[in-house]
Amino acid sequence: MNLGITLVSHVPEITKGLNQLLKQVAKDVPITIAGGTNDQDIGTSMDKILQAFSDNQTSEILAFYDLGSAKMNLELAQEMTSKKIHVYDVSFIEGAYTAAALVEAGVDLSEIEQQLEPLKIKK
């Protein structure tokens, strides 16, 4: 498997729950999570995001997030890792679920991105 997934949320329990859901359709996809701040409060942590990237067994990661400041931290962390990170502005749960199922099925990245297109958050 050459693609992994990282989930970033302001709430630790959200990433844990979403990870449980994704494992139902994508048991072989490397999924790492970064939920909450370093002291388990509401927010995001650059350290946790970088650790999630590092812990993911793949060199190419599809990253999903819940709110704008999580995206900001993801984009900063993206610059601090040698891994190829794709950050998606899509519905968090539906986007991650769609991507995980497609990665599990061996679908290539361009097709995954086509499938994510209708889930994009409009500004």
UniProtKB/TrEMBL annotation:
<dbReference type="GO" id="GO:0019563">
    <property type="term" value="P:glycerol catabolic process"/>
</dbReference>
<dbReference type="GO" id="GO:0016020">
    <property type="term" value="C:membrane"/>
</dbReference>
<comment type="subunit">
    <text>Homodimer. The dihydroxyacetone kinase complex is composed of a homodimer of DhaM, a homodimer of DhaK and the subunit DhaL.</text>
</comment>
<keyword id="KW-0418">Kinase</keyword>
<protein>
    <recommendedName>
        <fullName>phosphoenolpyruvate--glycerone phosphotransferase</fullName>
        <ecNumber>2.7.1.121</ecNumber>
    </recommendedName>
</protein>
<dbReference type="InterPro" id="IPR036662">
    <property type="entry name" value="PTS_EIIA_man-typ_sf"/>
</dbReference>
<dbReference type="InterPro" id="IPR012844">
    <property type="entry name" value="DhaM_N"/>
</dbReference>
<feature type="domain" description="PTS EIIA type-4">
    <location>
        <begin position="2"/>
        <end position="123"/>
    </location>
</feature>
<comment type="function">
    <text>Component of the dihydroxyacetone kinase complex, which is responsible for the phosphoenolpyruvate (PEP)-dependent phosphorylation of dihydroxyacetone. DhaM serves as the phosphoryl donor. Is phosphorylated by phosphoenolpyruvate in an EI- and HPr-dependent reaction, and a phosphorelay system on histidine residues finally leads to phosphoryl transfer to DhaL and dihydroxyacetone.</text>
</comment>
<dbReference type="GO" id="GO:0009401">
    <property type="term" value="P:phosphoenolpyruvate-dependent sugar phosphotransferase system"/>
</dbReference>
<dbReference type="InterPro" id="IPR039643">
    <property type="entry name" value="DhaM"/>
</dbReference>
<dbReference type="GO" id="GO:0047324">
    <property type="term" value="F:phosphoenolpyruvate-glycerone phosphotransferase activity"/>
</dbReference>
<dbReference type="InterPro" id="IPR004701">
    <property type="entry name" value="PTS_EIIA_man-typ"/>
</dbReference>
<keyword id="KW-0808">Transferase</keyword>
<dbReference type="Pfam" id="PF03610">
    <property type="entry name" value="EIIA-man"/>
</dbReference>
